[in-house]
Amino acid sequence: MIIYLVRHAKAGHRGDDLTLDRHRHLTTAGIRQAKAIAGYFTTHPVGRILSSPYARCIETMEPTAAELGIEIEVSEALAEETTLSRLAGLLEELAAVAAVAICSHGNVIPAAMDLVGRFSPEALACAKGSVTRLDTATGQVAYLSFPG
């Protein structure tokens, strides 16, 4: 199985109202990153695309979904406030998928890497607008960053 862990692209400022955090949209730089990520997936196609319900994650994957003709599946298990058990359950469900793209947050991606037992110093930093490719069969990890 190949898991592509995508950190959402650059978004607007968080601000003080965390209830509005789910609705932060991508910045102009973030939109450029999302388009670059979509270009990457044209040569690394996936069977499924999953995303945190946060707007910035969905918007990051929209160009990829359009390019590949795949719908984005929204999952609370990928939200910033997810639990390890919810995340583990989702990863277990996806085990039969040959290749999947998962868009989430800076606190969730390292946890997902930990759950599948794959590490990379660059990937653990998971900059906004980055993709970490995990091959669970070979243990290979590749990290790509898409500047805005």
What can be said about this structure in brief?
This protein is of the alpha/beta class. The protein is 36% helix and 20% strand.
Q: What kind of sheet is the major sheet?
A: 6 strands, mixed
Main sheet: strand order: 3-2-4-1-5-6
Under CATH, the homologous superfamily reads: Phosphoglycerate mutase-like
User: What is the CA-CA span between the terminal residues?
Assistant: 29 Å
Query: Uncertain runs with pLDDT below 50, 5 residues or more?
Result: none
Query: Total helix count?
Result: 5
Write the H/E string, N to C: EHEHEHEHHEE
Radius of gyration: 14 Å
Structural class: alpha/beta
Helix content: 25-40%
Number of domains: 1
- Any idea what the CATH architecture is? 3-Layer(aba) Sandwich
User: What is the CATH class designation?
Assistant: Alpha Beta
Fraction in beta strands: 15-25%
CATH fold-level label: Rossmann fold
Q: How many DSSP-defined strands?
A: 6
Question: What's the mean pLDDT score?
Answer: 90
The coarse silhouette is globular
